[in-house]
Amino acid sequence: MVKFMFERLDYLREKSNKLPMRPGVYQMKDKTGKIIYIGKAKLLKNRVTSYFHAVEAHNAKTYKLVSQINDFDFIVTDTELDALVLEASLIKLHSPKYNILLKDDKGFSYFRITGGDFPKIKHSFRNDDPASTYIGPFMSAFTVKQSIEECNKIFMLPTCNKEFPRDFGKERPCLNYHIKRCMGVCRGKITKEEYSAIIAQAADFIKNGSKQSVERLTAEMNEAAEALEFEKAAKLRDRIAAIERASKVQSIRSGRDINCDVFALSHNTGLTAAAVVKYRGGQLIDKENYFIGDEYEAAFMRSEFMMRYYENGREIPKLILIDDDTEDNDLLAEYFRGLAGHKVEITVPKRGENLVLTTLAKSNADEYLALKVGRTSHEITALQDLQKLLGLSKIPVLIESYDISNMGEQTRVAGMITYKNGRPYKAGYRKFNIKDVVGIDDYACMQEVLHRRFTHYLDGDESFSELPDLILLDGGKGHVAAVREVLDEMKIDVPLFGLVKDDKHRTRAIAADGGEIQVNSNKNLFKMLTEIQDEVHRFSINYQRKKHKMSQYELDLTKVKGIGEKKALALLKQYKTKQGIKAASVEDLMETAKISRETAEELYVLVQNTF
Fold first, then answer.
1. How would you write 162-204 as a 3-class SS string?
2. Are 86 and 120 in the same domain?
3. Is the pLDDT of residue 188 over 50?
4. Which residues are CB-neighbours of 135 under 8 A, at least 6 positions away?
5. Do 223 and 313 reside in the same domain of the chain?
């Protein structure tokens, strides 16, 4: 937290405590007096004071916002709806930096029909190639890409990188030709005139839609039949059937005649993206992606995002589906009703086809965020599912996992691995030697390791300075209960669970204080937890084996008179491997172990004959 913010914190707390318990709008300002955030509240005092208490517990975006607040103003309103309307108006006027400012990846899109004797139909964001023909512009890249895909299927147009007529007959036709997804232009048996006619039909389909295309193609088919051109008529018949099949699939895409917008958010690595999927007349007509940036309270983000989305005159349908609740669904619906002039319903589907639609929107948001943050959608989904399954307050970005490995009482170690944003974070790996536990006792060993780890944290050790969002122990509820005692005693508030294996050593459940939570039904989560458990086991057992080898080497070295435990450790630390110590000269051994030449020569002979 910046020094400037600390200097104002007492003032801000005192001022916020004097606010009325009434609806209203608050405006946060920086030290220059500029408005940096505008919000509305059902009860001003409760909402504004929440910013200035338990500051360290805030998420990243709120933390940054609070660090910049120098003062605030407020406006009292009669109702919460009045506050919502006023908030929207003020945000539009001031565009504060910490409010959501919608930025998507959309631009104008075109159907591009390339030049040459055998053109192809492609998507383009530009229309600056004089050799190409363009149809557009269109606002939705999604719709253009989807239409091109359907068009290429229906008219069996080539989508490969071959250039015709240059590549006629150079290779055998690809799989698309054999499954009737391409007419096989590469064979060189389709004339320029025949191909041009097909491209013209495809362009007509794009410009005028399936109904008029079917009418024109039907007329052409009848003319061909009357002229006894039966092969041409058959091709036209097949093309008409393909258009009708595509139209039929489009018409039942949502399962019924529905007009709605579907909103979903995706969170990962402290960042958020949103997807909006639009259905009109039962057809999926558009999809929009937005990168929101810093994550904060999901309900507030969802409310603010939806308000920003519709504030510029976009059509508001009667039904809006969302993947989770907003700050107040009913209030938001009332606000949209005022903008749209008709009833608006906002709902979070729990089952049925509407749930399928929100799941699709959520998948789109996950995929888009995955591209932005360099993660796969499976990793993002797994972390979100883990949060929900365990009832965590936030997505576990930083996960620590622990495992005990022993080979008798002489070689007992522990491994700590760290996963960051769903992937191994090698800089966070740590090794522990068990020092205080007598006998073979996994519970006591785990207690010792976690106690030492958080003692380092409490002592300000920089290598242990970051608290994890989640701790996963390799073990069941007994391990969890044992370590819970340590965390409670040290006042460490971190969610704690165990990873339980089945008889085939595969992760089958998460151990909690009260029992077990099954995870094998969730493929992405099961995969991630299995990877974590396998990785911590690999890390700890490799350390244990290395430690055991070193112990064996140490025993061998102490057979030489004059080489005690300390000198043996010095040699092992210097040379690390059998090959390393074997390559050392007598003089090297004398210098490293601080021993006489006679002892060094005896040691040299032992090493050469034993190692």
1. CCCCCCCCCCCCCHHHHCCCCCCHHHCCCCHHHHHHHHHHHHH
2. no
3. yes
4. 110, 111, 113, 203, 206, 207
5. no
Using the 8-state DSSP alphabet, how is residue 35 labeled?
A: E
Chain-centroid distance, C-alpha 433:
36
For the ranges 145-159, 307-321, 463-477, the lowest mean pLDDT is seen at 145-159
- Say how many residues make up the chain: 611
Residues 264 and 281 in one domain: yes
Task: Give residue-wise pLDDT tens across range 136-168.
Answer: 766 667 767 877 887 888 888 899 988 888 888
Provide the 8-state DSSP code for 522. Answer: -
Write b or e for each residue in 501-511: b if 16 or more Cβ atoms lie within 10 A of its Cβ, otherwise e: beeeeebbbbb
Q: Which residues contact 318 (CB under 8 A, 6 or more apart)?
A: 259, 260, 342, 343, 344, 345
Residue 360: which CATH number? 3.30.420.10
- Helical H segments across 374-467, by residue range: 377-390, 442-458
Same domain, residue pair 175 and 136: yes
d(CA 332, CA 571) in angstroms, rounded, equals: 72
Alpha carbons 419 and 519: distance in angstroms, whole number: 18
Rounded-to-integer distance, Cα 106 and Cα 437, Å: 61
pLDDT digits (tens, 9 = 90+) for 54-113: 887 787 788 889 989 999 999 999 999 999 999 988 988 888 988 887 765 555 678 899
Beta bridge partners of 516: 511
Question: Which residues are within 8 A (CB) of 307 and not within 5 positions of it... i.e. 6 or more apart?
Answer: 84, 87, 88, 91, 332, 335
HEC assignment per residue over 304-322: HHHHHHHCCCCCCCCEEEE
**Strand-pair partners of 262:** 277, 321
Tell me, what amino acid is at 228? L
Q: Are residues 520 and 595 in the same domain?
A: no
Cα 49 to Cα 38: distance, rounded to the nearest angstrom: 15
- Whether 215 and 194 map to the same domain: the answer is yes
Q: Are 123 and 110 in contact, with CB atoms under 8 Å apart?
A: yes
pLDDT tens per residue, range 505-519: 678 889 887 788 888
| Furthest C-alpha separation in the chain | 112
Q: What pLDDT, on a 0 to 100 scale, did the predictor assign at position 140?
A: 64
